Amino acid sequence: MKKSFTHQFDLQKRTIIMKNILITGGAGFIGSNLCHKLVALGYNVTVLDNLSPQIHGDKNSQMNSPTYQNMLKAGVQFIHGSVNIKEDWIQALQGQDVIIHLAAETGTGQSMYQIHKYVDVNIGGTSLMLDLLANTEHNIKKMIVASSRAIYGEGKYLCETHGEVFPNERKDVDLSNGDFECKCPICKGPLTLLSTDEESKKHPTSLYGITKQVQEDMVLTVGKSLNIPAVAFRYQNVYGPGQSLGNPYTGILSIFSTQMKNNNNINIFEDGKESRDFVYIDDVVDATVLGLVKDEANFQVFNVGSDKPINVLTVANLLKNIYGASVDISISGNYRLGDIRHNYADLSKIKVMLGYNPKFSFQEGLNMFCKWVENQDVYEDKYELSIEEMKSKGLYK
């Protein structure tokens, strides 16, 4: 197996400078993996997490979960609290050198009708953090915030007539007629997909994307005003062992896996050719650690992905073959308002400035993910309930 990091010796030397790390949302998928990496590198890690039932299950399963128990065994200090409660922030910030702010509500579709919840957690929790940094004594020397590819909306394309363009949100009338591809915002002509770099237009098509854009802008702006170096990582579709198999609102690989393990058929939206940039969890952790230890990252934003688009139908068929599932995979033409068509990351900036290169191909990462899934309990498939919620709000067609 490939090494998950190539600069371990250098990192261990630099942990002396900023030793105490607070990770909000540290019990989540990215956070828990990041915790173990940082502990292995010699950092003191504190986690602030509310153990959301949507991700972690009910109270009994939360406290007995392998993720939670393994963090405690590793020596992680755990604070069961919320980023929306001032007193929890005050407790968590004591003695910390760095904040890695991962805590957020993450379902793109769900964000379109649970608006107050998403704004309250993603923007409200971040504003509370920044307010405390601006108005109380602390030792914070760096902030890292988890942003998202969702802030780009439909990303970057090439029009033969107008060059590089950034398409508008796709219209319901076109989607209902099976016309799924993006059009040039100027001439309405066909487009060729390009990788999306950090200078691309930010125009999210979901409430989730809006909150991540605001969250990112807040951290970078206030970080500059307080002279606290800040870094924003725009993660693409992160996957791998440890991803929640019980959350029906986010994570296409885990959603499909849970459906297949329940012998439920798979409904592919649109025409199955919509694509995403899937990045393996170890690569995401490595990128985040680079942002922690490298001064070159300060006050910068970086894409984190694999720089390769893979369509959803291909993903479903690969999973079916690996699991040996006997389910049917059908292309329905259904669609969700707020979904994007394509988006994959241009990694030029993070490669040059931080030395990041994704180490795991999608096939390698998928094999490891599926091997992990095979050893997990089969979770109840609640995906159709999430779809019914969207239907009732007029967001699923």
From TrEMBL:
Record Pfam families: Epimerase (PF01370)
Q: Which UniProt keywords apply?
A: Membrane, Transmembrane, Transmembrane helix
InterPro entries from the UniProt entry: Epimerase_deHydtase (IPR001509), NAD(P)-bd_dom_sf (IPR036291)
Start and end of every NAD-dependent epimerase/dehydratase domain? 21-157, 197-305
SUPFAM superfamilies linked: NAD(P)-binding Rossmann-fold domains
Asked whether the UniProt record includes Chloroplast among its keywords, one would answer no
Q: Signal peptide: which range, if any?
A: none
The residue ranges crossing the membrane are 21-43
Source superkingdom: Bacteria
Record keywords: Transmembrane included?
yes
In the record, the note on similarity to other proteins reads:
Belongs to the NAD(P)-dependent epimerase/dehydratase family.
Q: What is this protein called?
A: NAD-dependent epimerase/dehydratase family protein
